[in-house]
Amino acid sequence: MGVPEQPRQPSAADRRRPRRAVDMRGHIIRDGGITQVVELIDLNYGGCGIRVPVELDVGESVKISVMSRGCISGLVRWYRDGKAGLVFEPIPEELKKEVERRVSRVEVPGEIGLKAVGRSNYRVRVLDLSTDGCKVELVERPSVGDTVLVKFAGIETMEADVAWIDGHTAGLRFKNPIHPAVLDMIVKRLGAH
Asked: Which end of the chain is less crowded, N or C, counting CB atoms within 10 A of the terminal residue's CB?
């Protein structure tokens, strides 16, 4: 699977999209390695809201870490009465790596089941599919390298690695490629919806 032709960072519109209420504990890491326990109260692809017991400076650069979900850099957008809004920093171009696509993909309409280890099952839109992997729209954002469970109707659950993430889409590489005959069956089933 490969990286889409035009990688896209979260736009200002993405950052302003409604945030989903969450209840997660995490840590922020401030300059000098100072760590502070925080509570995430809302989240979207462009940023999050936190409850924090210390005052943060607007414009301050921090890293936010949530157990089993990784670490991401962000900037403090606002702080008021023990709450702060963070905007996630875009991934620098030099950290993005291209993943060579080995086989052609077929555009497919439809939904599949997706589950990240330790998280809930949810349905996602699948955008294209090949014997080696697929591109999906994200509901919850995993990290590159995470293993996810993919469920197509009529076949056993498969393991896949997250190969790349671009905005609200991700490329998944199956740990065991699909047989071409099974791929044809899946494409027909997805096309029938």
From this structure: C
